[in-house]
Design goal:
By secondary structure, this protein is of the alpha/beta class. It has a single domain, classed as Ribonuclease Z/Hydroxyacylglutathione hydrolase-like (Metallo-beta-lactamase, Chain A), CATH 3.60.15.10. It has 6 helices and 14 strands. The strands form 2 sheets. The chain has a 7-stranded mixed beta sheet with strand order 6-5-4-3-2-1-14.
């Protein structure tokens, strides 16, 4: 039973098309996870448009049955939804997961009011169904998805996705550096591991793949405290403490070129090696597909 992960949008804050970001990509957050029978979508940034184009090329006769999870409703995580082709097809069923008051559903419809967009949400042809988590757990097709809270202005959710014994975690827009149990640890030595809360480590524990916001370098972060995003090296420390196998650094800063992302990944890799951890680290890149059900 296959478990595939594909990156459709990996940029943070605002789309950044152009030659400086051609290799990693300039679309904002959108991740697809699928099995042989189920399609999950995490966040609806501008990468969602390309995912929609792909899904509509060869839709099943019975129509698409899709499951959408939003980490939070900031612009860069919802701005692709009005351009999502399957939402305009009568044969599509799109389940939108959220809290009991269905806030995500309401915010998606709100951004399509006449003041912002020429097509109203009510005019979409797809069957769009809001669904609430129960005790932060939901069954979506043959996946189990567990939600956990993160530190971000206005709040955000991370998701632990389980399928056939494999685990992927999507954890973007989480200011880990505001959660350190020993905030002075980075000042002790450059390689002092930054300790994070047990509850967060448990949410990520033993993941085969952790897709995590790593927007800032150590040098950039002091000017961005409180903006809702972590240092990449702090993400490495979380992955090490949780026993993660692979770490995909995502939500690349709009000011970071492909070379800057390369340098950030190299620094993160060197940190893991210096600590003595066996952790594979790479930069999330648009168009890349991973298969998790293989050793």
């Amino acid at each position: 039973m296959g478990f595939y992960v594909r990156f459709w949008g990996v940029r943070g804050s605002i789309p950044t098309p152009g030659p400086r970001t051609r290799r990693y990509g300039g679309n904002t957050s959108c991740i697809e996870m699928r099995s042989d029978t189920t399609v999950l979508i995490f966040d609806a940034g501008t990468g969602l448009r390309e995912l929609g184009v792909s899904l509509m090329r060869n839709p099943p006769r019975a129509g698409l049955d899709l499951h959408l999870f939003l980490s939070h409703p900031h612009w860069d995580h919802i701005q692709g939804f009005p351009f999502f082709g399957p939402a305009y097809a009568k044969s599509t069923t799109l389940t939108v997961y959220g809290s009991e008051d269905n806030e995500n559903y309401q915010l998606l419809s709100g951004q399509m009011s006449n003041a912002y967009f020429p097509v109203a949400f009510k005019d979409l042809s797809a069957r769009i169904v809001p669904k609430a988590f129960e005790n932060d757990v939901v069954q979506a097709g043959d996946f189990v998805v567990k939600r956990f809270e993160q530190k971000h202005p206005g709040g955000s959710s991370g998701f632990r996705v389980e399928h056939a014994g494999r685990v992927a975690v999507y954890a973007t827009d989480s200011e880990l550096d505001q959660l350190l149990t020993d905030p002075a640890s980075p000042q002790k030595t450059p390689r002092s591991i930054r300790r994070l809360p047990t509850s967060l480590i448990t949410a990520v524990k033993k993941a085969d793949l952790l897709i995590a916001d790593a927007q800032y370098t150590d040098e950039e972060y002091p000017q961005k405290v409180g903006w809702g995003h972590p240092r990449a090296n702090t993400v490495v420390d979380l992955a090490i403490q949780a026993g993660v196998r692979q770490l995909a650094l995502t939500h690349h800063d709009p000011m970071q070129s492909d070379r800057d992302v390369d340098a950030k990944v190299l620094t993160a890799t060197e940190r893991a090696q210096a600590i003595g951890a066996e952790l594979e680290i790479f930069g999330a890149r648009e168009g890349v597909t991973l298969r998790l059900d293989r050793p």
